[in-house]
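Batch manifest, entry 17 of 40.
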Amino acid sequence: VTRGAWEIMKQSLNSTGASVSHSHEVAYNYQGHMRIKCEAGATSGVLEKKMKLMDIDVALPSAPYDLRLTLAVETEMGQEQAVDDNWESRRHKLRTTFKDPQGNATLGPWVLDMTTVTSEHAGSEEESSEVEIELDMGVCSEWIGAASQADADAVTSRLASRLLDTLQRLN
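Output type: structure tokens
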């Protein structure tokens, strides 16, 4: 996303009535899909394994951004781990999160993160602006565990409608 488009999106989201939170996280990436995520300035954090299962890249020539759909599994390894100097890459993430816990704002069950990311890898540094839309885990479980096909179809329809509302607000 271009920085200008990112700022316009953020202003639009501020008017949705969603709750807003801010964080500064650092992710240290190691061999074997392992990473340690911690708050900026911390010397230890949560050890997890992140496996990307699928990426679909979509070019949007008339938009100031492209689209990537990613399916990933993140598994916490259940232990606090000290950060060491053997990381392969490091990502500083300044994140603003928009949530709609009551389902009254445009987002509904979707959580939207707008993040400025500074990535370090092999001595080089790159900054990017990212927009990430994730489905609330409770709603995702409800969807997967639907009792019947009709129930699953109803949840799918509701989720698609709220996602479309959110995407339209971003344009």
